[in-house]
């Protein structure tokens, strides 16, 4: 058994390779940024400083490494997933409200049943207390369903619908302005070309 003596400070080839991979990225505040020159897909706008526009909008390769996914597509997919999640959340809350209302209705119905209403003595008192507690529990579940509706479902639906409609109107107006600018510039270019 021979031990190969390595000079102090030497690094094995496997560790050297890992170190080389790590040197292409840097992490600041739990956000990983590529080092300048480490991302050949897109030229940096501000190469000497850490810039959100450079490091967020960098095109990223898909998992197969065949095509690039633009930063805008990442944002768009995130926004669409958020809309879908809001829709699923509102449906979930709506179902929970229906379940709570149905449960409250059934508890209330059970508390009003005439079973053992004539019993006297300690069993009659216990039975009356049981029915009263069922009625109270039904009220609690009904209040909870009303709170869910007024404080969770309604604001969620309002946020989803209002923001979408406001944003749609705002962007439609902005896009219409841009189209007018494009048409006027196109007409100007056509006019210049017709003069030459």
UniProtKB/TrEMBL annotation:
GO terms for biological process: clathrin coat assembly; clathrin-dependent endocytosis; neuron projection morphogenesis. Pfam families: FCH, WW_FCH_linker. It comes from the Eukaryota. GO terms for cellular component: clathrin-coated pit; clathrin-coated vesicle; plasma membrane. Residues 48-196 form the F-BAR domain. Keywords: Coiled coil. This is Growth arrest-specific protein 7-like isoform X3. It comes from Notothenia coriiceps. The lineage of its organism: Eukaryota, Metazoa, Chordata, Craniata, Vertebrata.
